[in-house]
Every structure is written in structure tokens, then in C-alpha cells.
Amino acid sequence: MRNDPLVKVGDTVSLNTGDYCYGLGRLVLRVTRVDDGVQHPGIEWVHLVGVEVVGGEDQRFRSIVVRADALRPPAR
Question: In the chain, what is the greatest distance between 2 CA atoms, to the nearest angstrom?
């Protein structure tokens, strides 16, 4: 079984309000940094840093805590 990271630098993630801590509305983030803990399958939260993307344009830098389940691909 491979232990691929949930997210890596350069990925763009789209998150719903309930997917990130203190979230208010949908957030699209282009990831610029991922905490090392992201590769451990038992974690519940992941710290990401990135650039918020609105309407295809880069906006401000964000530091967020995301539910690991929101980053996992759907089960087949």
C-alpha cells in the first residue's frame, strides 16, 4: 500500500466552510507549504499555507487548518 501525501506544494484545493477551521464560505487555495505531519494516515487536521484564488486570480496568503478527510479522494 502506498502512503501518498494528501496534498503537495503546487496543488490547488477547493474547500467548503466545514472543511477548514474557522471557515466562512468556500475557499480555493493554491498550496505553497504543507506541514510534515500530512503524510501520517491517522491525522485529523492538516496545516496548509497558500494563496487564496478568487475568480482565477491570486489574492492574499492564507494559513489554514484543514480536515484531512476533505483532502482525501473519495473511496471507490
Answer: 38
